[in-house]
């Protein structure tokens, strides 16, 4: 692991950083997350390109990814942990896109952010439900709007509400394009479902990979995220 | 593929589908199902289908803001960044109209 104060590589289990003396036992100090995220202007969605790039990523490591997806799908039946699992799956692809070697255990790294991911998943579920009540389409727009929430939680260490606002800030210039992105991933997953259901083990990771690629392009990863969470 | 072309194709495809097909009367709206009152967007699909056939009076009878919805769809196909600030007032217009219709109809 790395010291979260000065960045020196230190052995796991060390209480204090040998270089700067920072305590390594507790959680990392909070970043100035109270500064609201400002998305760059003029963002538009390119759903086809993101899904295509996602497919390249998934294809390159298909065996491992299908295994991770299988565990993800099986554990999805457990109530209240879905947010953490989604965050973990995003972290898996985040490491992959940063050229690190993601491991199977990365699926469970979302549990380091259990409370924010849980509250975010409940709130997003509630908002999407309320939107769906209004002739369905608003629910789709709301779901598309909050797609990047989990990435902001793990990558930018945001709490659930700033992360949801940040995700909204990224998408607000192009509700239409991001809703098309959501519908396209839904369509891909429908195809996966029709392929004897097992196709989902490829299309679900493809969805997360595409969202992570979109985030990398529109927001960018924090270079310290893999070491911070590992 | 050019993203602008994709968006224009998507909106044009939507209007073409509405022109060619009569939307079926599916009980899709959860709000209407729960309360028996129309939600702010109820009737919009049928109204947009009427607009795509040029029946504006019928469209306004079904949903008075349907021309605005059609204009919003065209604006989304255009996708100019300056239009982004218009979505919130448009959504507010739908909310106000929806509230009035919900109480009045």
Please specify the SSE layout and strand pairing.
The complex is a heterodimer of chains A (230) and B (105).
Chain A: H1 47-60, H2 62-75, H3 82-97, H4 114-133, H5 137-145, H6 149-155, H7 160-171, H8 175-194, H9 200-218, H10 225-229
Helix pairs in contact in A: 1-9, 2-3, 2-9, 3-4, 3-6, 3-9, 4-5, 4-7, 5-8, 6-7, 8-9
Chain B: H1 3-20, H2 30-35, H3 44-52, H4 56-62, H5 66-78, H6 87-104
Helix pairs in contact in B: 1-3, 1-5, 3-4, 3-5
What does this structure look like?
The complex is a heterodimer of chains A (230) and B (105). With 230 residues, chain A is mostly helical. In chain A, 59% of the residues lie in helices and 0% in strands. Chain A is built from ten helices and no strands. In chain A, helix 3 packs across helix 9, helix 4 runs antiparallel to helix 5 and helix 4 (114-133) crosses helix 7 (160-171). Chain A is globular. Chain A starts with 46 loop residues before the first helix and ends with a helix. Chain B is 68% helix and 0% strand. Chain B has helices spanning 3-20, 30-35, 44-52, 56-62, 66-78, 87-104. The longest helix of chain B has 18 residues, at 3-20. Chain B is globular and about 45 Å long. In chain B, 25% of the residues are buried. The model of chain B has no long low-confidence stretch (mean pLDDT 87). The A-B interface holds A 41-42, 44-46, 48, 132-138, 172-177, 180 and B 1, 3, 6-7, 10, 28-31, 34, 39-42, 44-45, 76-77, 79, 81, 84, 87.
């Amino acid at each position: 692991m790395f010291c979260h104060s000065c960045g020196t590589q230190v052995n796991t289990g060390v209480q204090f950083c040998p270089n700067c003396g920072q305590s390594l036992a507790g959680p990392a100090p909070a970043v100035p997350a109270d500064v609201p995220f400002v998305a760059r202007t003029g963002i538009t969605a390119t759903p086809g390109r993101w899904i295509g790039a996602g497919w390249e990523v998934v294809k390159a490591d298909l065996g491992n990814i299908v295994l991770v997806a299988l565990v993800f799908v099986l554990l999805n039946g457990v109530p209240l942990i879905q947010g953490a699992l989604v965050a973990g799956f995003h972290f898996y692809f985040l490491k992959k896109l940063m050229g690190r070697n993601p491991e199977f255990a990365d699926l469970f790294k979302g549990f380091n952010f259990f409370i924010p991911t849980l509250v975010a998943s409940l709130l997003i579920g509630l908002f999407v439900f309320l939107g769906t009540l209004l002739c369905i389409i608003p629910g789709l727009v709301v779901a598309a709007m909050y797609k990047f929430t989990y990435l902001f939680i793990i990558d930018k260490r945001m709490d659930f509400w700033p992360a949801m606002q940040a995700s909204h800030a990224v998408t607000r210039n192009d509700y239409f394009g991001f809703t098309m992105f959501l519908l396209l991933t839904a369509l891909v997953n429908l195809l996966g479902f029709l392929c004897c259901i097992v196709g989902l083990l490829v299309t679900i990771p493809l969805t997360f990979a595409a969202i992570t690629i979109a985030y990398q392009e529109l927001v960018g990863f924090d270079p310290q995220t893999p070491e911070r969470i590992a | 593929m050019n993203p602008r072309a994709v968006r224009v194709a998507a909106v044009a495809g939507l209007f073409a589908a509405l022109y060619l097909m009569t939307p079926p009367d599916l009980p899709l709206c959860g709000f209407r199902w729960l309360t028996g009152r129309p939600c702010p967007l109820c009737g919009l699909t049928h109204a947009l289908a009427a607009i795509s056939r040029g029946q504006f009076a019928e469209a306004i009878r079904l949903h008075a803001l349907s021309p605005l919805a059609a204009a919003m769809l065209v604006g989304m196909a255009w996708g100019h960044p300056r239009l982004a600030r218009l979505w919130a007032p448009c959504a507010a217009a739908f909310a106000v109209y929806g509230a009035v219709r919900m109480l009045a109809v």
